[in-house]
Amino acid sequence: METVKIGILGLGTVGGGTVNVLQRNADDISRRVGCNIQVVAAAVRDLSGDRICPTDGIDLTDKPQDIINRADVDIVVELIGGDSLAKELVLAAIANGKHVVTANKALIAKYGNEIFAAADKKGVCVAYEAAIAGGIPIVKAMREGLTANKVAWLAGIINGTGNFILTEMRDKGRDFADVLAEAQALGYAEADPEFDVEGIDAAHKLTILASLAFGMPLSFDKCYTEGITKITQQDVTYAEELGYRIKHLGLAVRGESGIELRVHPTLIPEKRLIANVDGVMNAVLVKADAVGPTLYYGPGAGAEPTASAVIADVVDIARTLDGNVEHRVPALAFKTESITEQTVLTSADFETAYYLRLTTEDRPGVMADVTKILADQAISIEAIIQKEPNEDQDATIIMLTHRVIESNMEKAIAELKSQPFLKGDVTRIRVEHLNA
Q1: Is residue 328 part of a domain?
Q2: Which residue of 37, 154, 224, 402 shows the fewest CB atoms closer than 10 Å?
Q3: Taking the mean position of all CA atoms in its chain, how far away is CA 428?
Q4: Phi-psi bin for 10: left (phi > 0), alpha (psi -120 to 50), beta?
Q5: Are residues 70 and 168 in the same domain?
Q6: Please, are residues 435 and 274 in contact by the beta-carbon 8 Å criterion?
Q7: Which residues are catalytic?
Q8: What CA–CA distances, in Å, run from 365 to 362, 390, 399?
Q9: How many domains does the chain have?
């Protein structure tokens, strides 16, 4: 039986998990693909470091270029992360005629257009299933399973750290800073958690999903990104009272005037399946015309779940090594020549409903003033709650609005902030009902 040889750049958590799964399930994998898959070399940072996998029969090097230059390596698996050295190595591997598998969402979101063009020119594949939502086969679903469909929108919980934090805040009544510290202690969040809690990691993944859904170039620089650092326990509680849950959601929406690409905290009705995705789990809900709504759920990270996706890509490439390049599934689902620039809307043009919380003086006429300011911007109120005054005789007002253009909401909030009855800021969280 023929052997397909792979070289791995990075033998940490995911790299080690990939070796372990390949060795443990070698028989079943070879029966599925029709050949043996063997890791022959791996680049590591420290040759004397501890490994989570056996390295017998694997040539270790601390020079990644050694892997790329090996004549017997058919597929290079990039698992070092980052987007500078990784880009250099991936482009060098492509130039050497190597197929590439990567779990690097930042690399694909920021430089995928360049990388895929280089791969097309060289006639090699670049696969990236593990870059989005860990072990969930969402890229496979978007590239192949939904080929017959026109996608209207997709919504994803695609960062496990943020989802863990919001789940703990809801279930245990804890504050953001407290849960973040625990997430760091558990290894869910990095020492610098900005990519997770500010939505950058989710924006990388959403950028890729949007390209797969709409046949557009990767447009990370146009993705609106808002984090969860300002979400308070108070808002989590009020959302629950209204029948909603707060999730850090990535949304890609195809509208008449363009594409909305946005990552932000979002109230979702608690009856929606995706609202019940908790802890570090991920989920992506896709609304397409022929099949309707489909939900993809599973672990968004971890050694073996991510290794599962890496190996699936290796298997896909191994199956087509002797095939016609023209018959391979395109990297972004659409043929390269069919990928077209599309208008990506700015936040001012988003259309969504809103949760508003404001603290005001507790006196007659305030509620009428608030509702008039909203009405002047064509903002209709769906629900409203006024809490008992606190010891300072200030009232808390919570409102849900119907859908409105965001620029109108911005004008209304600016007017509210100018009012003498307002105490403090106006809290605004977008609401999506995800009717599918």
Answers
A1: yes
A2: 402
A3: 22
A4: left
A5: no
A6: no
A7: 205
A8: 9, 18, 17
A9: 3
